[in-house]
């Protein structure tokens, strides 16, 4: 009887192994031009976790990753010369839920926020049902990058 | 129906329907996640319960399930539960059966095989607190089950707490069940209390590895007083979970710890080498769950 066991599970596994595919919505260059049209960008500190660019018009462009429920989400934050969020862009999103984080209305909630703002899910950032983890981690991620500006980039 | 045909039915059901999520990184422990309103998921469970005190014993339990999010906090599910049992000289005295799913009339010197419909279940889960927004996740669960030889009402309290930026998931369930089971032709009242808990860590995007523990107590008659205790059994084992965008798979292997307790003479007959083999308990359990969105 036990000899039949491997065949019993083999079928589900065989059907279940289609490779996960990356969903890239924007390249870094496209996100840069979306947030700072016409600007040029100078990369900073290639060794750090976040990828940071100084923007020719003044301000900063940062690419970072946060964890969704299952996969990493790659996003970009534009910060203007006064330290306020100019906007965010979603570069890669592979989760089964919460594709609405790419919609302009959801992303627009971050515009104008600065390091002093609370940036809390369900208060100033709207949650998306079924994608709470993605929304919270993106919100926390933006907050962390604004703090990075406040504590480090601002002095540069 | 042979095991091969049984497997074919279960596997065909698994892939006849396009599916998806609300999944737990655990095979046995529920987490507090519920589906958003209007979302549907299909799940196929297979549990192999293997090994009694001697001889051969295999119980394959399959559950085919449809889940639906009624609101963002409330979900329901319908389960079809069906089994295949194969036993040969599995009892402590070296005979085949009888026992759970094996009738009294079984030939004690022959292999017994049977594939059968067990029951329908209707699960309801209401999420009170979210582990992603509140200090701890909390959900309430109720599931009535109806079958030709079984009536059961199961309730659960589900807790979940995430750590390390949600990479580490802890969950625990306290379950109480009241059931009527037709055993040897007579309906008997029974009760069960269960505590399950697990820890799972996201080792890579999409992958969780974890450990689960299950403590299961059985009671005769109605109620859960100490005088009605029949047995107490513990299981522990690893789990692995993979989730992609459209499907997920969880596998958990639980092994019975040799510290079971039996509280009456009848139960003590099934306590061998510190493990309890009565009332649907085996030495090892392997559960595989596959889920798909649609």
Describe it for me?
The complex is a heterodimer of chains A (156) and B (294). Chain A has 156 residues and is of the alpha+beta class. Chain A has one domain. Chain A has 4 helices and 5 strands. Chain A has a 5-stranded antiparallel beta sheet. Chain A is globular. The N terminus of chain A is likely disordered. Chain B is globular, with a radius of gyration of 19 Å. Chain B contains 2 helices and 15 strands. With 294 residues, chain B is mainly β. Chain B is 6% helix and 59% strand. A 12-stranded antiparallel β-barrel of chain B has the order 1-2-3-4-5-6-7-8-9-10-11-15. A two-stranded antiparallel sheet of chain B has the order 13-14. Classes of the chains: A alpha+beta (156), B mainly beta (294). Chains A and B meet through helix 1 and helix 4 of A and helix 1, strand 1, strand 2 and strand 15 of B.
Which chain pair shows the most residues in contact?
A: A-B, 34 and 39 residues
**What is the count of β-strands of chain B?**
15
Give the overall pLDDT of chain B as a whole number. 90
The count of β-strands of chain A is 5
Report the sheet-strand fraction of chain A. Answer: 15-25%
Oligomeric composition of the shown chains: heterodimer
The description of the largest β-sheet of chain A is: 5 strands, antiparallel
Average pLDDT value of chain A? 85
The amount of beta strand of chain B, in percent, is over 45%
Question: Spans of chain B of 5+ residues with little confidence (pLDDT < 50)?
Answer: 11-21
Q: How many structural domains of chain A?
A: 1
| Structural class by sheet pairing and helices of chain B | mainly beta
Number of helices of chain A: 4
Shape of chain A: globular
Radius of gyration of chain B: 19 Å
Catalogue the unreliable spans of chain A.
Answer: 1-21
Characterize the overall form of chain B: globular
What series of H and E elements makes up the topology of chain A? HHEEEEEHH
